[in-house]
Design a protein that fits this description.
This protein is α+β, with helices and mostly antiparallel strands. The chain folds into two domains: 201 residues, no CATH class; 106 residues, no CATH class. Helices cover 22% and strands 35% of the residues. It is built from seven helices and 19 strands. The strands form three sheets. Strands 1, 2, 12, 13, 14, 15, 16, 17, 18 and 19 form a ten-stranded antiparallel beta sheet that branches. It has a five-stranded mixed beta sheet with strand order 3-4-5-9-11. It is globular and about 60 Å long. It holds the Pfam family NERD. InterPro entries: NERD.
Length: 316
């Protein structure tokens, strides 16, 4: 069943980053499921920010899973407390901790709109996909979520109770699930269209991403570097119009705390999805040099020392 594949295989392992947040920093497990998903012809795109001509702003999309047969737009709602569906399709959420209730717009309608914006964006970039290629899911992964009248939730919604029962326990189970995922129903799109689709999504606007030590990630927007003038000058070419990825390496040996760091970065290549090793550029700066970064859904700009980072990815 597609819902089981979606929740148990991909969501549980790879995208815990959306589930449990702590001061805008997200813990991430090593992703065996991502490798399996890629092995069976699928790709996952996280944190897209697609231009929406109707609002003049960007539509945030948590996650898109793409195969040759379908694309699933996924919205992750980290809701806690008691949640029920009202007659008009909106949701009512009551939190014991906050002792108050709130009404939420229908997440399914919101996710369908996200899919519509994404489809229009793809058409603008020359990709015409067959009708019904896109589908939507809403994941409710918070263990403090409690559904009232779970049978009232649409089939597109995966409640926490459903999600918890679909957690994969072994790699061989994951692999078996993948082998039978896309055999029936929809037909494969043309290989050329599939390749073009993946290229466009890989170059689509998305949130910048910091990878911190300890498998922690932050999604948001890179602002600038702070530090000694000579270090800032050495990093002057690191801006999103030129650089796609930056990697931090220690310069000291035997695990001693370094006074300097090697920073490798790649020139952005708009012609193809990959970047060759010859395009890496190396500079050396002080480990105290900082990155100013504004996390997603936060009004505060945070400072991260380069010594605490593993890498930074910049959206085009």
């Amino acid at each position: 069943m597609w819902v089981e594949i979606l929740c148990g295989l991909v969501i549980y392992r790879l995208f815990r980053r959306f589930f449990f947040r702590d001061d805008d920093i997200m813990d991430v497990e090593t992703s065996d499921s991502n490798a399996l998903f890629a092995l069976h012809g699928g790709k996952a795109y996280v944190g897209l920010r697609i231009p929406d001509p109707d609002t003049g702003s960007r539509q945030n999309i948590d996650l898109v899973l793409v195969t040759s047969r379908e694309a699933v737009v996924i919205s992750v709602k980290n809701l806690s407390g008691f949640v029920s569906v009202d007659a008009d399709g909106s949701w009512s959420c009551f939190s014991d901790r906050k002792h108050k209730s709130q009404n939420l717009p229908n997440p399914i309608v919101e996710t369908r709109r996200e899919a519509s914006v994404l489809e229009a964006y793809l058409e603008q970039r020359g990709i015409a996909l067959p009708e019904g290629y896109f589908s939507c899911k809403v994941i409710l992964p918070n263990p403090k979520f409690c559904a009232i009248g779970s049978n009232q939730f649409p089939s597109e919604v995966i409640t926490y109770e459903q999600w918890a029962h679909l957690k994969p326990e072994a790699k061989n189970v994951l692999s078996d699930w993948f082998k039978g995922t896309f055999r029936g129903g929809k037909k494969d799109i043309q290989e050329s269209i599939h390749q073009q689709l993946n290229f466009v999504l890989s170059t689509a606007p998305m949130w910048d991403r910091l990878e911190l030590k300890g498998n922690k990630y932050v999604l948001g927007e890179f602002m600038e570097f702070k530090g000694k003038q000579e270090d800032i000058q050495a990093l002057r070419n690191v801006r999103r119009s030129k650089v796609g990825r930056l990697v931090i390496q220690k310069t000291s040996m035997f695990g001693l705390a370094p006074s300097n760091l090697q920073v490798l970065y790649t020139h952005r290549d708009y012609r193809s999805e990959g970047v060759s090793a010859s395009e890496w550029v190396e500079v050396t700066v002080r480990s105290s040099t900082e990155i100013l970064f504004q996390p997603q859904n936060s009004s505060k700009v945070r400072k991260f020392k380069l010594s605490s980072l593993v890498s930074m990815s910049l959206s085009a």
